[in-house]
Amino acid sequence: MLYEKIKLNLRGKTSYPYRQPSPSTLSSCSRLLWYKVHEPHVVESNAPELELIFEDGRAGEEQMIQLIQEVGEYIVTHRQARIVSYIGKHRSMGNIDGVANGNQIKAPGLIFDTKRLSPFVWREFERDGIDALPHYQDQLTPYILGSPQSLGIDNKRAILFAMNRENADIFDDLVILDPERVDKLEYMLDNREEILANPKAPLRPYSRDSRECKTCPARDYCWWSESRDSLTLSELQPSDAEEAVANAIDFTTHQSDRRDHNSKMDEIRSYFDSLLEKYDCKSIRIETGEGLIVRPNIRTGTQREFDELALSYAHPEIHREYISTKPTTQLRFEIRFRGSLISQ
Ligand code: SF4
Question: Where residue 13 sits, what CATH number does that domain have?
Answer without folding.
Answer: 3.90.320.10
